[in-house]
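Hey, I'm writing a tutorial for new members on how sequence and structure tokens pair up, and I'd like a real worked example in the thread rather than a made-up one. If someone can provide the structure for the chain below, I'll link this post from the tutorial.
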Amino acid sequence: MSIMSIFLNWIDINKLDMRIISGHPEAVPFFEANPHLICWDEFSANSAAITFLTANLDKVNWAYLSRNSAGVQLLLANKDKIDWDALGYNMAENTFLLYEDNIDKITNWMPICKNESAWINKVLDGNIEKLNNIEIIELSSNPAAIPVIEKYLHLMIKYGLVMNPYVQDGIYDANTLFAYIGNRIPINYCSYAGFVTFLRHNRDKIDKYICMNTNPYAEELIEQYLEKEDMDKIDYPDEPYWLPLLSANPAAVQCMKKYIKYIYWSNFSGLEEAIDIIRENIDMVDWNALSGNRLAMNILEMNQNKINWKNMSHNIGIYIDQTRVNSENKNKKNKIECKCQQQEQLYNKGTIMPIVDFEKITIHYEENLGPLYYSDSDSDSDSSDSV
């Protein structure tokens, strides 16, 4: 395979945005042959480019490299060049090695609190007191942070905990949780299997937020809501705000076959799941959005004058080798299928059974948790950012 043939043969390389392309692992062989086209910021974060970056350290952007999951060994050899806040975004499991004896260099804990890699527990343990309330909320909702959440449960905040997918998986009774959160968090748009199962048993609680639920099992609930909504009475100038969001929901694609005239094509055209409907309605598609749709390459090839090449540069479908994205999609599909099977079992049992014992978080420890929302009086009495 020649260097140029990493791209589909009809792709006009001169029209691609090289800043975006520089971040794609698939494009590394192309840039090794054409180093003058490299945008070194994005290339420094490219996980497939470490060998080439190591040979060109004078061109590396170290803030971007600090985020590179394949760059830990290179960072260990160049600790004086690390951007310590950017390092918090790094997903490599051995990232914690870089923080040894360097905790004092962290000025922004938010990237670490949001990072869904297990290494964050080793860095956060013993440093929870350095976090402010907003960072604590993010940490409370992080499914990778369960070890520190359990150890410092008295410092966690309820709002974050009830949004934590791992905590949600351990909820033993959705009815209890529904009462526990006082209806103040719309469970209709939460894709957690237990919430959707709860709604399947309690269809009177289905509301407009179901249109944003991405759980595949929410499809029938979305369809029920749309039938009740009487779409034919919708006046486009005054359309409900959820209608554009509905068109962006992959779980609602099959439902939208009945409501073609209500589709917001700027959202719908980017959905891979919608490609069959798109093919049948080419005259209605949004070409800016379609230019980023990986499964629309045949359509785009026949309509090259309509392509938005900046959006096209984000489209992994421009490459011949689809191994990486196919693998990622397969893993994602397997996880969804596993959740759906679990959900079907729960539905057949007619109850929500425990997977992880988090009853102590949602019930017994309620008096130790922070408020779901801070009132004005709370913020007045606690003006400090720290916990």
